[in-house]
From TrEMBL:
Domain of life: Bacteria
Organism: Sphingomonas populi
Name listed for the protein in its UniProt record: DUF1254 domain-containing protein
Pfam families: DUF1214, DUF1254
Location of the DUF1214 domain: 346-450
SUPFAM superfamilies per UniProt: VPA0735-like
Domain (DUF1254): residue spans on this chain: 88-217
């Protein structure tokens, strides 16, 4: 266990190790193994393993969302063999709407074209320019490395566009004239751009918008990483996870108020005098760490079904994006699907069951979702179906993955209601949403929701099971 303990400055500020003579506060925690002494961990193996297991559990709950984002970043920024390699500060554009083969992240929408870029602010501010547009909806959804979202969107900046200077934590420079400063929480950021499109004509216009959004780094060399340590390749298990978490905390630091929690990860080798490497530990210690990691992964998996707040009709209102110190919610949300936005941008509801609480399954029933009043939005809404096993869009003969207010042939009743048929058997209805012969789930998304939706005045009705399939 000969790990050093030099911490990232963002987590342990540079404060003298000993109190001033007229200061009665306790001294700051020592920064190295030799200062801690031999009592960093219990010498008794059973006690030591309990500490390591507990620390690994907490580290996994805390850092899983960051690890999952890092996997995406590694493929696009560091892995030159990847099909979507760009390096830092360059977009990779999806030119077609997401379908069953979409692999960038889980539970994609099929309402918008996606573009992804990873931003590196380690060499200084990066400028993003957004052109004026008549798109029905767009957003540059910007996430810090831990998955906390913000938006440069038509909701926050309007349709006139602008120039935005993304600056790293602690930056105090002078922005160029005509730019608006965006203060980032971490050095590495994920920019997930969405541009609305449904018809072929809209797709063409959205592609033009994608190409018109530009990223300008401080220097040409800033397209590559500038971390103090080499970025580790993602790998399964606690060993791979801790190497990545150590890299993230060294590069990006932790957020205000997290110092005490992050210090608990030091016995795991995180933020030591050298990059974390659990393989150097003895067999019993490695087993304890793997056990704590596995327990946390199991808790995250078991908590997926209760993500959000129940509406009482089978749906869960997903409170995305606002995590605070609720790291379990953050990890569960990002395990279910990366890129979760705040409700003000995209209010969403998810259900795995019908109105009677029975799991949705295209092999056992046909279903109807009757929207007496369509979702109140300023942009658009959609109802999308996903396979419950793969969390992917379900392939079907008509290539329809959602029904929305823009669906061609959508039938609206005389009273304004919309009934969506959800079943495996083919239907000629423009309101048919094809389902697999197996379990599935539904996500209702409302882009730029109106106040009555945000306040809970509008809720989706339960999905009714019609008959045996």
């Amino acid at each position: 266990m000969a790990y050093g303990l030099a911490a990232h400055a963002a987590c342990l500020p540079a404060i003298p190790l000993h109190a001033e003579q007229d200061n009665f506060a306790a001294p700051e925690a020592p920064r190295s193994m030799r200062d801690y002494g031999d009592d960093l961990l219990p010498k008794d193996e059973k006690s030591r393993n309990e500490v390591l297991k507990s620390a690994a559990f907490d580290a996994t709950i805390y850092g899983m969302s960051a690890y999952l984002q890092y996997e995406q970043m590694y493929r696009q920024v560091f892995d030159r063999t990847s099909s979507n390699f760009t390096g830092f500060n360059r977009f990779a554009h999806e030119r077609a709407l997401a379908g069953p083969g979409y692999a960038t992240f889980k539970v994609p929408n099929s309402d918008t074209l996606y573009s992804t870029a990873w931003i590196d602010l380690s060499k200084g501010p990066v400028e993003i320019t957004i052109p004026p547009t008549s798109l029905k909806y767009f957003t540059l959804n910007i996430f810090d490395i831990f998955g906390n979202p913000s938006n440069l969107s038509n909701r926050t900046i309007g349709f006139k566009g602008g120039r935005f200077l993304l600056v790293p934590p602690g930056w105090h420079g002078s922005p160029p004239p005509g730019t608006t400063v965006y203060r980032a929480a971490t050095v590495q950021l994920w920019a997930l751009m969405r541009a609305f499109a449904q018809t072929d004509k809209e797709v063409v216009y959205a592609r033009h918008f994608q190409d018109s959004v530009t990223i300008t780094p401080p220097t040409a060399s800033a397209t590559q990483a500038s971390a103090d340590i080499a970025p580790p390749a993602p790998a399964p298990g606690a060993k791979g996870f801790l190497r990545v978490l150590d890299y993230i905390l060294r590069t990006d630091g932790c957020q205000p108020g997290e110092d005490a929690l992050v210090s608990r990860f030091r016995p795991l080798g995180v933020l030591g005098d050298r990059p974390a490497d659990p393989s150097t530990l003895d067999t019993a210690s490695r087993a304890a760490i793997e056990s704590g990691y596995a327990s946390a992964v199991a808790v995250i998996a078991a908590s997926k079904s209760q993500l959000g707040v129940s509406t009482g009709t089978g749906w869960m209102k997903v409170n995305k994006g606002e995590y605070g110190f609720n790291y379990l919610r953050r990890s569960v949300t990002n395990t279910a699907g990366l890129g979760a936005n705040v409700r003000e941008e995209n209010a969403s509801y998810t259900t795995f069951s019908d109105a009677n609480g029975k799991p949705l399954n295209g092999a056992t029933a046909n279903y109807t979702l009757r929207l007496q009043t369509p979702p109140p939005v300023n942009a658009f809404w959609s109802v999308t179906l996903y396979d419950a096993k793969s969390f992917a869009l379900h392939p079907n003969p008509i290539n329809r993955y959602l029904v929305s207010d823009r669906t061609a042939g959508l039938k609206v009743a005389a009273d304004g209601s919309i009934s969506i048929q959800i079943q495996h058997a083919p239907s000629r209805s423009g309101n048919w949403l094809p389902a697999p012969t197996g379990p599935f789930f539904i996500v209702l998304r409302a882009y730029s929701p109106k106040p009555e939706m945000l306040g809970g005045g509008w809720l989706p009705p339960g999905i009714e099971a019609d008959m045996a399939a």
